[in-house]
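Hey, quick one: can you model this chain's 3D structure?
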Amino acid sequence: MKKGFCGVFLTLFLCIALVTPVFAEPGLPRLIDEAELLSAGEEAALLSQLDEVSERQEVDIVVVTANSLSGASAREYADDFYDDSGYGFGEDRDGILFLISMKEREWYISTRGYGITAVTDAGLEYMSEQFLGDLSEGSYASAFTTFVRLCDDFITQARTDMPYQTGRLPKEPFEVFGSLVTALAVGFVIALVVTGLMRTQLKTVHRQSMAGNYIETGSMRLTREKDLFLYRNIVRTKKVKDPPKSSSATHTSSSGARHGGGGGRF
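Sure thing. Here's the predicted structure for all 266 residues.
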């Protein structure tokens, strides 16, 4: 009886394990500021943002600052830190980790699971353009905040439509609207002045009712006249282009997991 009860209990446990979604290990900090680049206030605000986006999207978003890579490449360090720490939602361990190392002045973004789908190579290049300026200037909190915001946007875009890709990247905010309006106004005024001056030079010219009045008598002789009629009917069919494909170069980490991502210097 006891043996039979144990068997039923084991079967029930296995069934629950199979249908229960796998989440990131509880209690894992999504911000590790080993290099101590953030103030206490910045750290609290960023951690709150990381947790909120990660749990809502069910994709771990992690920021790691290191003093040194300890002889490893930035890619190896980021991949191994992610894998060994146990980050990631679901069976594919969905997540995106942003690493910077101060000694080498290198950054790297490691993606895994759905993170690979959401952050394509073109998307990663766009993303880096948004935060590299802040990294180089030492505005680390701003750079990390931009990273988290873009991760949220990229994941939503991938799920609701298709991942950002070449030709389909986020549009830049139109920050030069005021300058453009000013330039148009100045151009309009200049045009009015120029056309006004041109009109003052045409005092001897008066509007005529017929085109022939503009021709001086005897200045033109018509020797041949011919009517030529051309008829053309063109049917144009728009060629439907295939949507840009999502592409992310991947590699295998030391633990045998599939990762995407990329990095550089700052």
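One thing worth noting: Strands lie at 31-33, 60-66, 95-101, 106-112, 250-252, 258-265.
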